[in-house]
Amino acid sequence: MTTLPALSPALEDYLLAINSLADERQDVIAARLAERLQVTAASVSQTLERMSNQGLIAVSAQHRISLTEEGSAAADSICRRHRLTERFLTDLLHLDWAQAHTEAHRLEHAMSDLVQARLSEFMDHPQTCPHGAPIPGNFPAGGDAGWRPVSAMTVGDEIVIRRVTEMVEDDAELLRYCADKNLRPNVVATVREIGPDRVYILEVDGGPVAVSDRLSAHLFCEPVS
After folding, report:
1. Which pLDDT tens digit goes with each residue over 58-96?
2. If we measure between CA atoms, which residue out of 56, 97, 89 comes closest to residue 73?
3. Core-most of 55, 75, 86, 199, by most CB within 10 Å?
4. What is the pTM of this model?
5. What gap in Å lies between CA 169 and CA 99, rounded to an integer?
């Protein structure tokens, strides 16, 4: 097994953010990182230069950011620790979605490879975090290839909700809305209406649930075959 270099918590947060934006199928650019991490443009610029010098990222002529092989391995490691911790906090300590996400950010940086391996084994190698995000090393490669945002669906489509993205996880109010309305992984829903303002009305558990334009882009699903 290749030993990854020790990284600061700040760099790990950047790796997690870059990986999350790519997972959401967004172009990863400095402005989006600044928004996601709630830091200044100058801070992002300095950190990206440092990450590039360390061989963790590549920046294209169009200013799009991608992870190198080394950066991708490091991002998978931090994502794995974060998502395993969330699963432990919800399934065994019974924290709610929002609490688990916040606490996982505090704990993930101190977790060793040994502890994360034992934690995964203890929980029988869960494939996703509570929010549906794949856990690297446990989730089948390419298993999320058929997942699409609700915003790509049309009226009448029957879907299975698969995950909420990191953007939703970082918004405690939006995350609690998803929990309250049962917009959770593996829940079956039907698209009943799409309003002129792109508000999706889903039928969930026999009742209507409004999904805003913003949320619909970050709520991933899979059509029922």
Report:
1. 999 899 999 999 999 999 999 999 999 999 999 999 999
2. 56
3. 86
4. 0.88
5. 10
